[in-house]
Structures
1.
Amino acid sequence: MEILAFGVQADERPLIERAFAGHHEVRCLDVFLTEDTAPIAGGHEIVSTSVNCGLGNGVLQSLAAGGTQMIAQRSTGFNNVDLPVAERLGMTVARVSSYSPYSVAEFAWTLAMAVNRRVVRASTRTRDFDFRLDGLMGRDLHGRTVGVLGTGKIGEAFTRIAHGFGMRLLGWDVAENPACRELGMRYVPKEELLAEADLVSLHVPLMPQTQHLLDAAALKAMKDDAILVNSSRGGLIDTAALVAELREGRFTGVGLDVYEAEAGLFFLDKSLEAIADDTLARLVTFPNVLVTSHQAYYTEDAVGQIVDTTVRNVLDYLAGRCSENVLVPRS
């Protein structure tokens, strides 16, 4: 059987091909799954998709019409999949329920340190042989307060690093993590966390309850000189409200690896095109903002685990087995 994989990055391809070797053939495409590209899947019972593939009603209908019965999502998030439609069409949907939390936690700290110590600005200057220090002053993080919104596996890994820095730990979540408690974390209401934290990092999933978790009011509640990092999902932040705050000169630094309207932009080369998204275009112009293209998970370790789990999900489907990774079971 041939598995069709959409949205495969160049670095990811050999890992996918090696993982499927000895099991099934896999055809890797660099194009993302959309209504325009869905017909390519005709005749393939199983397709694999990335986090930036939109699996709404139209795409799912097209896949089902072409004979697709199983979708193996290569990500933990699944807000891009219309699960009720998939269930109605009798399609099995599986995801990767977990992978290395250190990949994302470490990258979140990379963003935090980069904006705090003005690394991008410094690198740009030295390329022009400008070695002045003006405007590059950062702050010690030791002794300052970090606010972690979401203390699951990734939030816990982020907290352990913060503990190593010697920071005061504040947390917010629907359920407390005993491991974070042991590190000295104090759980507080979101409003208190935002008001006290020098660094705020987001590690919660995107769902209706967390959409724009940081809205205009929440952003205004933060310290003027706070650092904000989001390596989870773009929809957690009201980006238009964030731009408004940045225009007022607020925040020492903002590090974003995700953006709420990233679909159709991230993972693609748009360097020769005019960007129609005015909010994103404005966002990247601020000197204290660093935007990366959803790469926090992108380590050999994490991607390897994602691919291995995807293979297991496919094999489980073919064997009629159901695991914790299945979002919509086989009908």
2.
Amino acid sequence: MGLFGLGKKPGLGIDIGTDAVKAIELLPAGDTYDIIGIAETQLPRNLITDDEITDIEKLSRALKQTRKSLGKRSLDVVSSVSGSQAISKQVAMSIDLDDDAIAEKIETEAEALIPYPLAEVRYDFESLGEHPTMPGQQRVLVTATRTLSVDTRVQALEAVGFKVRIMDVDNQAILRACDHVIPHLHPELYDDHLPLLVLDISHAAVQTIVLSAGEVMFTRYQSGGLNNLLNALNPDSEHDQGELLAKLRANEIEDFSPLVIQDFLGNLWSQISRGIQIYRSNATKKDFSGIVLINSGAMLPLIVEMVSEQADYSVVSLNPFNHFTLPDKFEHLYAHGPRFVEALGLALRSFTPWHT
């Protein structure tokens, strides 16, 4: 993998989540992009546990279905590992250093920058420009993850014919997607100089992400997402999980135990509050311009309503498909837009340079 920019070729982002593979294919169109492909393939339960793939063969079968759904246009892929598996550190370096010199300096100082043996990790870096308070210095973002976490995903993708150009980190992809669509959909959230709080509520986890000035300022990953609610509502696995989710998305909760729902929402808000508390303990700006909900949790009215009631800030459920005109054959996925935020960010990553 080397410096990567697809130019006018399509950009394909594939998000391998715990419950599904989600893919978006973009094509540059003037100063924006058109969505030319979307795919979603459900995964067997427990195929990915604690962000580790337990069966590469089963994942490859799901990816094969994803490729079939997309067609044959793009094989170059940007995918990601979880932020819980990656370590990012911002360091100051001389502004005179070019990419080769930065890479050499990182390797020389690897022991201080990366808490793993360099032979066991893949690392990447990006210059964030001149340091605002240190003349003659630039800020360099160094990101590292264990080689195994990257290689298992690459192996599964390449087994079905995809060519992995970049392995990104999920919170960086989310940052990229938010920076692309929020100024258009919710400009009031970017009018303020305060950070933006993003709550990524998936089936398996709750990730608290704070974004500010084009950077990920804070991230906290906590296991325990929607699966906690689904398992409590369906302890004997008598009901189809897809049907339960459809009822929750439609806010048809009359047949569900109010106690179970309230217990889940209470625990969820405790997780969110704890993440906010930890961020604020070291932050200079403790307030937020707003709260953005993404992923499966953002599709459930009961979660959106709970966060809106508990939080002191405006709350929005981010659907990137409100910014793009979907081809007619993908209209059925419109309501699922919050689940595709990371995939969008990965697809956008295709059009920016990086060093891997």
3.
Amino acid sequence: MTDVGPFGLSVRDQALEADVQAGLAAVEEGLLEATKSEVPFITEAAQHLVRAGGKRFRPLLVMLSAQFGDRYAPGIVPSAVVVELTHLATLYHDDVMDEAAVRRGVESANTRWGNSVAVLTGDFLFARASHILADLGPEAVRVQAEAFERLVTGQILETAGPQDGRDPVEHYLDVLGGKTGSLVAVSCRFGAMMSGADDTVVDVLTQYGERLGVAFQLADDVLDIASDSHESGKTPGTDLREGIPTLPVLRLRERAARLGLAEDIALCELLDSDLTDDARHAEALRLLRAHPALEQARQDTVRYTQDARSALAPLPECTAKAALLELCDAVVHRAG
């Protein structure tokens, strides 16, 4: 038994393992090629996060989804490069919006070169993704455009916040469906679509990806509170410091409103204070790590992974399906 992919996914079939490893290696080459520019500075900035590594979660899903058709079809690797470039581009933009100092264990692009360079580098990556996409046909362009619209809409909705009377948790889960679920769903869709899989299989895998994508982000929310920077590759509590309410915070506020416990209300007041102060930020993290809201957020993550597992039920039993199911377990473990 050997390990493949971002979570140390155990693969028990040598043919599947070889296909996934070869595919991910080709994606890595494709990412480096796609981020080259005639201007050396642009190459350096564009390859900053590529060379920092990463989970390559989306390309892995492309490779596994392609197993349900012709896994050697020529569009599979380029489509995986497209989704990863798109993801990387959003990270450059997210770090500017969050004023993040660390990304994937290295200095963020905005810290190193400033916000303008970081934003423009993200735009450069979007352009390169679009260039590759054009060779994959009009249907692929349409699918990616729709996903990108959902992604941006999710980001805008997060920035705007819930409308009056809207449940903040429901609003947040809708945001995640756009911000994260959309691109993970496209990863599965592209893998199946480019391999020529049956339309029913494409739809099943797209639904799976949507639900797994939300679960993956919820696990990140938990990790951001519960982990140290060594585990997560970024500064813990970044969203907390910026006042961005992730699910553990929303569950805390929901509980405070429902039960009216003094300690919950006090923690909410602390979160509403100036958390750019390091001492307050550390105290908020400490209290949240011990609060039942964090465990509730973990259970929400489990629920979404269970939904993802259920979505795969119509697919025939095979090693690729087993690997996709195992990814659900890996996401739960990530939030554990």
